[in-house]
Amino acid sequence: MRSPGRIQVVGIGPGSLEDITLRATSAIAQSDYVIGVSTYIDQISSLLRNQKVIKGAMGEEVQRVKKAIELASEGNSVSIVSGGDPNVFGMGSLVLELLAAQDGTIDVEIVPGVTAVNAVAAILGAPLSSDYAIISLSDLLIPWADIEKRLTSAAESGFVIALYNPQSRRRKRNLARSIELLKKHRPHVPVGIVQNGTRPGEMTAVTTLETLMEHEAIIDMHTTIIVGNRESFVWKDKIITPRGYQRKYGY
User: Fold this and answer.
1) Are strands 160-164 and 223-227 parallel, antiparallel or unpaired?
2) pLDDT digit string (tens) for 12-68?
3) CATH no. of 6-114
4) Parallel, antiparallel, or unpaired: how do β-strands 160-164 and 77-82 relate?
5) What is d(CA 39, CA 17) in angstroms, rounded to the nearest whole number?
6) Which of 191, 142, 199 has its CA nearest to residue 165?
7) C-alpha to C-alpha distance for 163 and 191, rounded to whole angstroms
8) pLDDT, tens digit, for every residue of 154-168?
9) Residue 124, Cβ neighbours under 10 Å: how many?
10) Which of 92, 101, 79 lies closest to 35 in space, CA to CA?
11) Going by DSSP bridges, is the β-strand pair 160-164/132-136 parallel, antiparallel, or unpaired?
12) Rounded to an integer, what distance in angstroms lies between the CA atom of residue 226 and that of residue 121?
């Protein structure tokens, strides 16, 4: 009987191959199979050589993981590619959940990647230098009531807030409602918008909650929004969130 193979859940970064890690590149190179959404497979196409490729669509995550487990159980090395980092709204938890349910013996490695929020923050300046929270506005898997509670709690606490999946063609109300909630606690903070960060067609805007929807043309599922805290400010179109050095040392 052939010994079980392994599964690698590989974070391939925010979009540009310049932001994929050496560890991720190596994991893909050593794989027999590479599995992922078509967009992500196309993103890393130049790294593929003799690997067998299985493409899927959004919404087929469970099927892809089950196929990866099947292939690994036959002795193959399988990479499931995940945009950004596998632990930030990625595939890491699903792979481990399904393996735990089977109590399997397949080896698993989570290969970290540069997240969209880190890439976007670098484009915008230094908005994440203090504590921050990342909240997805997609209510496909999480009830909207829970998302509202998280938004309110993060806004009250003073976290810088990064919003993932802010708006789709069929889901418009969540972003508008989020703006209402956030404005109650921080009405005049800077807000950065980045669409297609590090990818072709990158678009950015620095605005406020009051005028955020004036930039709706660049807000979709490929957009990340960063909402500053009360200390955040704008300098030369860059958002800066002080870490606290001035309070301690003065300058």
Assistant:
1) antiparallel
2) 999 999 999 999 999 999 999 999 999 999 999 999 999 999 998 888 999 999 999
3) 3.40.1010.10
4) unpaired
5) 13
6) 142
7) 11
8) 999 999 999 999 999
9) 26
10) 79
11) parallel
12) 8
Domain with CATH 3.30.950.10 in the chain: 117-240
Give bridge partners of residue 207 from the DSSP assignment. Answer: 191
11 residue type, one letter: G
**Residue 43: exposure state from Cβ atoms within 10 A (0-12, 13-18, ≥19):** buried
pTM value? 0.93
Place of tokens 């297609």: 196
203-219 exposure pattern, b = at least 16 Cβ within 10 A, e = fewer: ebbbbbbeebeebeebb
Beta pairing partners, 206 = 192
CA end-to-end distance (rounded Å), the chain: 68
Architecture of domain 117-240: 2-Layer Sandwich (3.30)
